[in-house]
């Protein structure tokens, strides 16, 4: 169990302050769990006030003692209600800001209205793009945690090879792997920023169920155990000759990695075997072109075009009519971080120490899906693997 | 796996329409997963438009085919963007409403702003109180699902007695019970409405760790596996003579029940044994007074006063300084539904077929916590148990 070092926190808020100055923000008021963990080291009911210059103030309603124990920030104060904010800020010599940022992509309207009263006429803009820009570039400390998560991922994946047997249900397989990961310290809660985005341990499914589209923004969806969940493993039993997709999130010490591997019992039809090999070719293409400075959208375009050249226009990243327009997504304390390796991101560039998952997948409705996914970090000379399990198509 | 019957959906939207007419709303636009599941039977990326009279229209971006398959609503249409809404409504003979409701307690500001443009000058008020009022009163169909969840809960609890052993960690125990429940069809995702509220399978912890306060709005918090999670099971090992709290959510076919039991190896100190018995007395008091028509706040007051009379002023529902001001919470498709058995709810009354969890707990910082929790439904003549495991303090 790691406590985020104070030096890490300092670098993080200074990076945010640099972004804030660029955007003309006098302050950011932060409320959301993932952001609070990143900037304070301690998830509490509270508000982190980051001024454009100087020390942030973490105002904590519950649990002040825990925040004191876990956070390396200098200024942590108890507070009861948003009404107290002006007074607390005055104690620290801060006036109420005229232009402030909040996380408008995640903060609900009703809560926002309370803060907007407190900020009394201030212009409030969305600070999330700044926050996400800072969070996208990891420190060496963060990369080390993600390596630990990748180790958990590999051990869990090895376990899959031991437990898969004909006739077991996708749900039983999921349960076995979730159990295994949990005993290794998987934190259970996995965070996604998007409204209504729900995530469990990931997607473990076989055959036609792995090709069923769902509400989630993902190439594969799955049937799930009921329509209230509508994604992931179902009660379907695993048969010989169909692809089994193990797409899991390992979450450790607050950080996640995402990995997909494809397995089967007794082999796959040639079409799917070829599709699996071709998805690996798309990953190879990524590794050729992804460098600091490369544009997110151009990486997407080149990989997408290769998929089309290889004949997957109607099968790539979803079945026909249910295809998503991304192949990769940033990952760290949330699963949907910057960068997006996605259509249309013409200007945004990869930077050294960004981390992202890349998941070329081919989908055949009624038959199944195959593909691979790894989490990488961007080094000066190209991508380095965080997840590292063998990418061979496993035939059990 | 249940598909919500069309007759259920019809009763539900008619109940909402009755509330809407009382509040002068011409329409409600619903976006959130739990509400969509309740009112459509199918969680998709979409908008449910409920007019004050007539059939609701479910506009679905992704995945239209799934919505068609799972939802018993008559009017389901594909759509791409909020901009399409006016046109779709016109097709159904609806004008854009002048006063509409949205779920302002959960919908993020940025998303709200997009809809507010589409609704072009309409007054938009919070529809969540109406939605939650409707959802609080369950149908017989819903009660049956919750009984299935309670069965899963009991079987999982029986499993706890088999696997607990001295020296295992809280995390190992949690992993064992989560695994067991998952194999029984636990849906994994558990839903909570409150912003930043995170929930996994529940809280399983022992000794002092079960008395550590956390950010969550709950009597017990726990240390968790890392500060990013900050609640629930940790790596602490289970010792003889300390209370082991098994507070779990069983989630099945979209519905949840909440149950807590206390166990120990080799007995508990007299103080904790007595506290456990006294928590049972508070549950008995609840059963004496909770009837249709009883006020939420009065039930709270009577039970709280009894806790104080019994000497738990500084230990009830949290350690001194970290006490929460509720003893019970509604439960169904979310864990924080109406009714709240909590301080200050002077006017709101229990109604027949409401369901709630009641969890009197005593907390001794540094020592541990004891308590009991059951999920009930309100019958004409009083409470009926949904969760039903034996309430004896278990000595292993």
UniProtKB/TrEMBL annotation, chains A, B:
Instruction: Pinpoint the Peptidase M24 domain residues.
Output: 144-379
InterPro entries, A to Z: Creatin/AminoP/Spt16_N (IPR029149), Creatinase/aminopeptidase-like (IPR036005), Creatinase_N (IPR000587), Pept_M24 (IPR000994), Peptidase_M24B (IPR050659)
In this record, what's one Pfam family?
Peptidase_M24
Superkingdom per UniProt: Bacteria
The residues covered by the Creatinase N-terminal domain are 12-137
Spans through the membrane: none
Q: Tell me the PANTHER family matching this sequence.
A: AMINOPEPTIDASE, XAA-PRO AMINOPEPTIDASE P-RELATED
Q: What is this protein called?
A: Peptidase M24
User: What species is given as this protein's source?
Assistant: Desulfuromonas versatilis
């Amino acid at each position: 169990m790691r406590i985020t070092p104070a030096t890490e926190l300092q670098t993080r808020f200074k990076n945010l302050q640099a972004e804030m100055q660029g955007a003309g923000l006098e302050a950011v008021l932060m409320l959301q769990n993932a952001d609070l963990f990143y900037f304070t080291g301690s998830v509490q009911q509270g508000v982190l006030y980051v001024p454009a210059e100087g020390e942030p103030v973490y105002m904590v309603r519950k649990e002040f003692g825990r925040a004191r124990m876990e956070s390396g920030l200098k200024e942590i104060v108890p507070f009861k209600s948003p009404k107290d904010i002006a007074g607390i800020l005055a104690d620290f010599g801060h006036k109420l800001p005229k232009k402030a940022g909040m996380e408008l992509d995640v903060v609900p309207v009703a809560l926002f209205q309370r803060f907007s009263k407190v900020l009394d006429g201030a212009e409030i803009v969305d600070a999330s793009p700044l926050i996400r820009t800072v969070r996208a570039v990891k420190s060496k400390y963060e990369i080390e945690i993600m390596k630990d998560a990748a180790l958990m991922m590999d051990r869990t994946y090895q376990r899959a090879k031991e437990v898969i047997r004909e006739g077991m249900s996708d749900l039983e397989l999921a349960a076995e792997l979730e159990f295994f990961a949990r005993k290794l310290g998987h934190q259970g809660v996995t965070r996604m920023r998007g409204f209504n985005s729900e995530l469990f341990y990931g997607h473990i499914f076989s055959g036609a169920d792995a090709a069923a589209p769902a509400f989630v923004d993902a190439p594969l969806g799955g049937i799930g155990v009921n329509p209230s969940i509508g994604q992931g493993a179902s009660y379907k039993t695993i048969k010989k000759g169909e692809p089994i997709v193990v797409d899991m999130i390992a979450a450790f010490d607050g950080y996640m990695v995402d990995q997909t591997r494809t397995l089967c019992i007794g082999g796959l039809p040639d079409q799917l075997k070829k599709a699996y090999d071709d998805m690996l070719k798309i990953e190879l293409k990524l590794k050729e072109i992804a460098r600091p400075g490369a544009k997110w959208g151009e990486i997407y375009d080149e990989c997408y075009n290769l998929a089309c050249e290889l004949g997957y226009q109607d099968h790539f990243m979803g079945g026909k009519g249910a295809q998503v327009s991304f192949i990769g997504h940033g990952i760290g304390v949330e699963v949907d971080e910057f960068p997006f390796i996605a259509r249309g991101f013409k200007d945004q560039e990869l930077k050294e120490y960004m981390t992202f998952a890349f998941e070329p997948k081919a989908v055949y409705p009624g038959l199944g899906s195959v593909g691979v996914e790894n989490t990488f970090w961007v080094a000066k000379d190209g991508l380095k693997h965080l997840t590292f399990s063998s990418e061979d198509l496993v035939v059990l």
